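User: My notes are a mess, but here's the protein and fe (ii) ion's SMILES. Can you give me a structure?
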Amino acid sequence: MPFLKKRQSKADRLIARNPFFYKLAEPVFLSRNFQRLKDIVHHDASIADHAVSVAYHAFIIAHALGLHAHLKELVRGALLHDYFFYDWRTARPRNGKLHGFAHPQEALENAREDFGPLTPVEEDCISRHMFPLTPIPPIYFESILVCLVDKVVALAELVAATRIHQG
Ligand SMILES: [Fe+2]
Ligand SMILES: [Fe+2]
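Assistant: No problem, the inputs look usable. Here's the predicted complex:
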């Protein structure tokens, strides 16, 4: 695990917690562009921290429920659901539209470019994760799980961020 030599981020700690999760997540996590997400602020930490947290918790839930058929797609889709490279507080997606509505499409385009072709489950995890803000709901168990876990993790991160700002 070469990344362990550097100062550990929240993502680094979480990804090493379960060897099976690490095996599934490693090809995306260690890629050069995914590592760039460690430097982009999101909620209380970085996009990488957030994406790994969503992937890890979705993985744990699916694993506990015995739903193993698409675990790799679940982990990859969750890791890539916010695969965009801008600070949403100060910049907009490429198409100039509002971040909340447009970033799933930008994440999908970026993910296709770096990791494509994606499976339908992976595409659904990324493109539908902002439902109900975006109107089309996810249709697979894995993408529904990513959609739900993303909201819980984001809420927990926002609460943590509020505590940090309050000192
Ligand atoms: Fe998102
Ligand atoms: Fe997210």
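The pocket of fe (ii) ion (ligand 1) is lined by residues 81-82, 103, 129-130 (CB under 6 Å).
User: Great, I'll file this with my notes.
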